[in-house]
Specification:
6 strands; 10 Kd Chaperonin, Protein Cpn10, Chain O; mainly beta; six-stranded antiparallel beta sheet
């Protein structure tokens, strides 16, 4: 007997362009300190996350590219309403410009 198996697609790599950065948001707390369960609509989206991938830098007037200040794996703080939310393989990422990143957390 022959069984057909579905091949798993290789993981998609998301490569941002220019000075864009792909960030995975940190998880939010689902309960308040008093133990009240918060619905999704009441949760505040965190402005912290981990850099997944970075672009190759902003194009300068002389044709060179400026180096980005962040790299993959950096923990960052960014502005609350920064960038575009995108979904890849059921995972949610944020695509933001480097200047929306406020700090790198050590």
């Amino acid at each position: 007997m022959v069984t057909a198996t579905k091949k798993k697609a290789p993981p998609m790599k998301l490569q941002p362009l220019g000075d864009r950065v792909v960030v995975e948001r940190d998880e939010t707390e689902e309960r308040t300190s008093g133990g009240i369960l918060l619905p999704d609509t009441a949760k505040e989206k965190p402005a912290r996350g981990t850099v997944i991938s970075v672009g190759n830098g902003r194009l300068l007037d002389d044709g060179r590219r400026s180096a980005l200040q962040v790299k993959s794996g950096d923990k960052v703080i960014f502005t609350s309403y920064a960038g575009e939310t995108i979904k890849v393989d059921d995972l949610e990422y944020l695509l933001i410009a480097e200047d929306s990143i406020l700090a790198v957390v050590d």
